[in-house]
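Technical annex B. To support the medicinal chemistry partners, we prepared a structural model of the target in complex with adenosine-5'-triphosphate, based solely on the information shown next.
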Amino acid sequence: MLSNFFSKNEVSVESQKAINAFLDAYRSDIFPQGLLVIAQAVTMVMAKKNILVKMVLPFPCDGQLHDIAEQLTDLLQQQVNFDVEYNVQPVREHKIKGIKNIIAVSSGKGGVGKSTTAVNLAYGLIAEGCNVGILDADIYGPSVPTMLGLKGAKPSSNDGKLITPLEANGLSAMSIGFLVDDANATVWRGPMASRAFSQLLNETDWPDLDYLIVDMPPGTGDIQLTLAQQVPVAGAVVITTPQDIALADAIKGMAMFEQVKLPVLGIIENMSYHQCENCGHHSHLFGEGGGKRIAEEAKTQLLGQLPLDIRIREDADSGSCAINENSTGEVALLYRNIARNVAAQLYYQLDMRSPKTAEVVVKESK
Ligand SMILES: Nc1ncnc2c1ncn2[C@@H]1O[C@H](COP(=O)(O)OP(=O)(O)OP(=O)(O)O)[C@@H](O)[C@H]1O
């Protein structure tokens, strides 16, 4: 038998060919040109009776690899697993130690669920396989401490100079809310607020992070503009709801980032629909299709849509998170899908090693 020629650790040539062909032809939103064009160091070994596909990828995507492994297992009638290392590269140079990429989460309008989405996006990126931190820059209403279950907690300092961030379920977190009480934070204005923010960013002893999510204050005024200029943001994500008034403000938000020449990775539409608990029917309480429309108009991506769901509010209020309770639950999967889209957009739009970015550069130079 052919298999007798292989050592116990070798995958048969037939299986290798089948896996390569499948991965080569595989297409999805985050792999528009297939998986193999962006994968490095692809090898296959036998691990007991299972095939282990090893590779290095440039952005986290554990959830999608899990689905691909299931499809390959069906195809080969043999268990296939992935063992992937993520090698996220910084797309923009900056001097903040330990952090590779800063992603700003903003909204033109207050109350659209920006902080809730920022926290869940951070946990989504962790669930997909990366090291992540969050910086609550919402100086006028820091809600991240509550959402992480860290209200009242105080960070410490090992050397008396840098503040050690707090940690909640593997997420490193810093917020003005850890340092001053809410009443004091709200009276801060202009320069004072931006100085406080700059200190939070630069004087925190961040661990090694692939992504730092910055929860920006809502709106598009001077303070937001200053912060956007102050932070070496790799890419921005704009949160909106489908209501006309929120959409109009989201457009203003994108224009603000354009003004300071920061790339917008896309839009997340929050409270897009309500799903009936009994029959599963989706009702679009605040209108339909708005996020998609403004994303198309701004030539950016709709990174995902989230339901108006009581579980999301309850989690945010109680300091828990759907992803940490059940990383494959319905709401968790939506956030993880958005997290993958954000990470992939950052890579394809901005990393010079990305085949898509490289393509754009070639076209421009003609
Ligand atoms: N998809 C959702 N489903 C249900 N409730 C949600 C959803 N998203 C956010 N919420 C709730 O809406 C309220 C406002 O959310 P959040 O504080 O995240 O908004 P924000 O845009 O950050 O507000 P602010 O402008 O004050 O910073 C919170 O009570 C939150 O739990």
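Notes passed to the chemistry partners:
The longest strand covers residues 40-47.
Confidence is low (pLDDT under 50) at residues 1-6, 362-366.
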